[in-house]
Amino acid sequence: AQSVTQLGSHVSVSEGALVLLRCNYSSSVPPYLFWYVQYPNQGLQLLLKYTSAATLVKGINGFEAEFKKSETSFHLTKPSAHMSDAAEYFCAYTGGFKTIFGAGTRLFVKA
Amino acid sequence: EAEVAQSPRYKITEKSQAVAFWCDPISGHATLYWYRQILGQGPELLVQFQDESVVDDSQLPKDRFSAERLKGVDSTLKIQPAELGDSAMYLCASSPGNSGGAMGADTQYFGPGTRLTVL
After folding, report:
1. Which residues in chain A have their CB less than 8 angstroms from residue B105's CB?
2. Three-state SS for A20?
3. Which of A47, A68, A70, A98 lies 20 to 30 Å from A55 when distance is taken between CA atoms?
4. How many CB atoms are located within 10 Å of the residue A17 CB?
5. A26 phi/psi in degrees, rounded to 5
6. Would you say B94 and B2 are in contact if contact means Cβ atoms under 8 Å apart?
7. What is the β-pairing status of strands B10-13 and B114-118?
8. What average pLDDT does this structure show over A3-14?
9. CB A39: neighbour CB atoms within 10 A?
């Protein structure tokens, strides 16, 4: 069965520190992979997506993610956290027509 | 910039009552999705439309939930009767849906959601 696992429901970093949010997927078909961000009481907004082109994908707000087929991973990184990055982040996988979301990781940024 | 519109933003109802949510996707988007997001969890797909046709409603509790997109534009999601466990955020999203076999690569554009509280 297809699934998306986000390791760590909460991640806390200091402002200026590296952000690393982990995502692993399981699938028997080539995936399309996405990272979305959700601010309180708002809908989701696309950060970046992998669609079988370059394995290193750059997104908005300085985020990037690397698709590693051998590890079935699509981890999200940002070199330097900003206070405005505090939000919930969702990894999503699409195989065929259906999109499956991970449970989310809430990012806290400390001053 | 075009956005997905949803109404109402908030809804409080008592159990056993009927509720309805409305979604207006980005103009020209063929695919429309309804998701349920329980607090602390990721969105779960309830129903997906391609134009006016249902593509996937395998997770829609059909004994109480219904969804329609009659003219392939806006959509309504209804719950009747509402139960306590239905309290959640209901998100609508749309995507162009014109990528043929690569539809899975479409970016989904989300509305602000409707937060439902059932008392």
Report:
1. 32, 49, 51, 94
2. strand
3. A98
4. 14
5. -130, 130
6. no
7. parallel
8. 94
9. 12
- Residue B55's H or E segment, with its range, is strand B53-56
- CA A25 to chain CA centroid, Å, is 11
Owner of token pair 């969804």: B67
Report pLDDT digits (tens) over A27-78. 777 789 999 999 987 889 999 999 877 889 999 999 999 999 899 999 999 9
Nearest-neighbour CA in chain B from A90: distance (Å): 7
**Residue in the block written with tokens 């028997």:** A28
Chain A residues interacting with chain B (CB cutoff of 8 angstroms): 4, 9, 32, 34, 36, 41-46, 49, 51, 90, 92, 94-104
Does the pLDDT of residue B99 top 70, yes or no? no
The residues on B that touch A, with CB distances below 8 Å, are 4, 33, 40-45, 48, 55-56, 91, 93, 102-105, 107-113, 115
CA distance B54 to B34: 11
pLDDT tens across B45-80, in order? 999 999 999 989 999 999 999 999 988 899 999 999
Residue A1: count other Cβ atoms within 10 Å of its Cβ: 6
What is the per-residue pLDDT for B101?
54
CB atoms within 10 A of CB B33: 26
Tokens representing residue B48 in the block:
């997906």
Sorted by sequence, the CB contacts under 8 Å of residue B100 that are 6+ apart come out as none
